[in-house]
Amino acid sequence: MKVDGNPGAIEYSGYLNKVRQQQASDQQAQSKVGPSGGTDTVHLSERAREIQQASQALKGMPDVQEAKVAQTRLDVDSGTYKVVGAQVATDMLRETFENNLILQKINTRV
């Protein structure tokens, strides 16, 4: 068994896509010229600030848990790596539940 990629990471692609869409629409709104031709001001909503903070927090998170990957590689190489089917199923359900909660929260705020 070869261990590559991003094991154990929860994919928040739906959430990230929503953040990127919101940032793009915020940038479009900011780039519009005001009718007076003078200096425009931009006031970010609380939601926009939350999205910016979430985006920054996600950028600061590592993509790979290096210690966990190294330990798993050692276990695989030594033949002591065991897959517990019930734990895999539980983890998959937990990840699905977490992703659904995130998407539900995003959809209620749109």
Short structural summary:
With 110 residues, the protein is mainly alpha-helical. It is 65% helix and 0% strand. The relative contact order is 0.16.
What does this structure look like?
The protein has helices at residues 13-31, 46-60, 66-78, 85-109. Helix 1 crosses helix 2. The chain has 4 helices and no strands. The radius of gyration is 21 Å and the shape is elongated. The protein is mostly helical. The longest helix is centred in the C-terminal third of the chain and has 25 residues, at 85-109. The protein has a domain at 44-110.
- pLDDT < 50 stretches: none
How far the N terminus sits from the C terminus, by CA atoms, comes to 43 Å
Shape: elongated
β-strand percent reads: under 5%
Instruction: Please tell me how large the radius of gyration is.
Output: 21 Å
* Main beta-sheet annotation: none
| Elements, N to C (H/E) | HHHH
Number of helical elements = 4
Indicate the percent of residues in helices. Answer: 55-70%
Q: What is the overall pLDDT average?
A: 80
The overall strand count is 0
Structural class by sheet pairing and helices: mainly alpha
